[in-house]
Amino acid sequence: MRFLISAAVALAVVAGATADTLKDGSVQVTPGKYKWLQETSLAGVPLKEENLECLIPEEAKITLSKLAADLQKGCGVSNVRAIKGGYLFKLTCTGKTTGTADATLLHTDKSMTIHAKGSADLGPIPVGFSMKAQATYQGACTPDEIAKAKERYLRENPGAAAQ
After folding, report:
1. Cβ(135)–Cβ(112) below 8 Å
2. Residues 6 or more apart from 57 whose CB is under 8 A from it?
3. 56: closest CA among 32, 35, 26?
4. pLDDT tens digits, 131-157
């Protein structure tokens, strides 16, 4: 999930259609190896990224707020609405990069797709921004991949070892 988070919005799992505004939403997926594909366009300049990542059980459930915060310090979500298979929400960033985007996160137990469209400020100039990211389950992680993922997770979440 780190790749997805760092790429754009990050950035689902209450399945059911409701128009209620929520403070946050959460995503639960099957732990394992995921293929991450992301296409981002900023001011019309396309960027593509792809990688494989081992998602350990400790990372298999995450909130939209955590996805946004992991994207960049100062990012958050609002106007979260549950939809069938995911969420609609507004992403707002006020840190190093500022801007807003309307986003959708859809998921199953073995996939996740995020779409976001909005604007970001490049200096004093607002520019168009769009992103599509998709994560697809590829199977179980190897013991070595799990060990490396747990080591990274504990390094990034020092309080997690005491839990």
Report:
1. yes
2. 31
3. 32
4. 898 999 999 999 999 999 999 999 988
